[in-house]
Write a structure and sequence with these properties.
single chain, alpha/beta, Rossmann fold, pyruvate-formate lyase- activating enzyme, OB fold (Dihydrolipoamide Acetyltransferase, E2P), 3 domains, six-stranded parallel sheet
């Protein structure tokens, strides 16, 4: 089954699921309503939403299980960013819906972005779904699951939802790493993106709320926090006197976790103060995920992306001048309407210059409801794929050179446990490797020789070899 079940599995850690809520806020119901499973589709921001629903369900008398086949209640948290993701969500719903006929499953709830985008169509097309809830109704999942509220979508006028440090939340996956959403929604005008229509206007949590949540995570053993938002660098603009730089300063001084990493930073908002904090703060990783989308000026205009001092080349060179040690990750879109061979040549040359430690390349998807979907010059899918492969090959050449420069160096590594492809080796990530999207460190020590090194340990690894996008090394010492 596609998607990710939001529960701690045997292969990750054998500790109880974590709860971000303080003891005073945890009013768990004494009534038992059954067993619940939550399946997450889509991005890390969706994972946070699923963890909020897990916390609410637990506090409403549900036991959380790792297998949907064992559940009385299933919640599918859908993705609606791309049409392909909506199709995947529907396939997952149909598959889980079969369990109502032949398994113990009694109730199926569908939540998330696909509901926001296609709520009426989904209600008509999927009779096997008992209830639908939007991204603004996450706190209502307990009442919907226990039949205290029905037909939630018929109620109108609800405010945008934004979780905080007092919101019930149960972490899923590993017990040493977590995502923290510091803001929700987006005000940017990108012509290819449907997110502002799905997630609403930009709204930020308070600095104190974020710091409190990170502190609670640290108290429960979390070593790494990845900060999330649709537009990270706009954080605090809707709150008088707060900014991303101020938040990072407070987290570094008071947050308690070892590593704090920034994901999804819009170019506008990158300034000298922010770059210097990332470079100098002890707990802030020298890492910046900066989606640039393209380098062609005409395409950027058509995308309504930043130009001038925030254009891809200008902002990249500015970052390199102020903070050369920052590991830059970026994403590009190929096959945008009107993209020419000259445009793709320019993008390839830009990538080959070696500015980026890692690159993600996506083929353009014409999304209903976006301006770009109506633009002339739509490009055939096969041509999009060929262009994607070309840019990925360019970055692969860059990676080979960049990784080779690390041979013989010592790197701080967060050990994640046994390597997923062999039980003889361990694997981990460095400060410049975000979970799931970047490479890893393969620790070339036999697992039985360092069997007392547990997942979540931070150690030092000497890099001895390369393996594609990954590094290989020997563990020298740990923080145990």
């Amino acid at each position: 089954m596609k998607g990710k079940l939001n529960i701690i599995d045997d292969h990750t850690s054998k500790v109880p699921a974590l709860n971000v809520v303080s003891a005073e806020e945890n009013h768990t119901s004494q009534e038992f309503f059954g067993r619940a499973a939550v399946i997450t589709l889509g991005c890390a921001k969706n994972q946070v939403d699923s963890e909020v629903m897990l916390g609410v369900l637990r506090n409403n008398g549900f036991d959380i299980v790792s297998e949907v086949e064992e559940a009385d209640l299933a919640v599918i948290n859908t993705c609606g960013f791309l049409e392909s993701a909506v199709t995947e969500s529907i396939d997952c719903i149909l598959e889980v819906g079969e369990l109502k006929k032949e398994g113990r499953l009694r109730k199926l709830i569908v939540a998330g972005c696909a509901v926001e985008r296609y709520r009426e169509e989904l209600q008509k097309a999927l009779p096997e779904v008992d209830e639908f809830i939007t991204t603004n109704d996450l706190m209502q999942i307990g009442d919907v699951a226990t039949d205290k509220i029905q037909n939630l979508l018929k109620e109108a006028g609800r405010p945008y939802f934004l979780y905080d440090d007092k919101t019930p939340r149960q972490l899923s996956g590993v017990n040493y790493s977590a995502y923290v959403k510091i803001a929700e929604g987006c005000n940017r005008p990108c012509t290819f993106c449907i997110i502002p229509k799905i997630r609403g206007a930009m709204r930020s949590r308070s600095i104190e709320s974020v710091v409190q949540e990170v502190n609670m995570l640290a108290e429960q053993g979390v070593k790494e926090v990845n900060l999330l938002a649709q537009d990270l660098t706009s954080y605090g603009r809707d709150r008088k006197g707060e900014s991303l730089s101020m938040l990072l300063e407070q987290l570094d001084a008071r947050g308690g976790v070892n590593w704090i990493r920034l994901l999804y930073a819009y170019p506008i908002g990158i300034d000298q103060q922010l770059l210097e904090i990332i470079s100098s703060a002890k707990h802030i990783c020298e890492y910046l995920d900066l989606p640039l989308q393209h380098v062609s000026e005409q395409l950027l205009k058509n995308m309504k992306r930043p130009l001038g001092r925030y254009a891809p080349r200008a902002i990249t060179e500015y970052i390199r001048t102020i903070a050369p040690a920052i590991h830059l990750r970026t994403t590009f879109i190929v096959g945008f309407p009107g993209e020419s061979e000259t445009d793709i040549d320019e993008l390839e040359k830009f990538v080959l210059e070696g500015h980026f430690g890692s690159v993600g390349v996506f083929t353009y998807s014409a999304e209903e409801g976006t301006p770009a979907a109506l633009m002339p010059g739509q490009i055939p899918e096969q041509e999009k794929q060929q262009r994607r492969e070309r840019i990925m090959l360019a970055q692969q050449k860059v990676n080979e050179k960049r990784l080779a420069e690390m041979l013989g160096t010592d790197i701080e590594v967060l050990i994640e446990g046994v390597h997923p492809e062999t039980d003889l080796l361990l694997s981990g990530r460095s400060r410049f490797q975000a979970p799931e999207v970047d490479g890893t460190i393969i620790i070339n020590d036999l697992a039985e020789e360092i069997e007392n090194v547990s997942a979540g340990t931070i150690g030092t690894v000497e890099i001895t070899d390369l393996a594609g996008y990954d590094l290989i090394g020997t563990l020298k010492y740990t923080d145990n």
